[in-house]
Design brief:
Layout: H1 4-11, H2 16-30, H3 35-53, H4 62-69
Length: 74
């Protein structure tokens, strides 16, 4: 059976997309899926979209969000 380090070396040779898919698959094995959370998140998303459409909240351009959280070199 390969070690975690050996698997890491092999995985690091994958494309970024394949590495992300692998990470998703590994994370899926760690937690059992709670379908009730999916329902709650869907309801939350619908509620937020409805509030946006009613003009109760405003959107922020993606570049502003990214700029806010980017680490600036020192």
């Amino acid at each position: 059976m390969p070690t975690a380090k050996q698997l890491f070396v092999q995985a690091s040779q994958l494309s970024p997309e394949d590495r992300m898919a692998l990470v998703d698959q590994i994370l899926d094995t760690l937690d059992e899926r709670d379908s009730s959370l999916d329902v709650k998140w869907a309801q939350e998303a619908e509620s937020r979209l409805a509030a946006y459409r009613r003009g109760e909240v405003q959107s922020i351009p993606l570049n502003e969000v990214i700029a806010k959280y980017q680490v600036k070199p020192t």
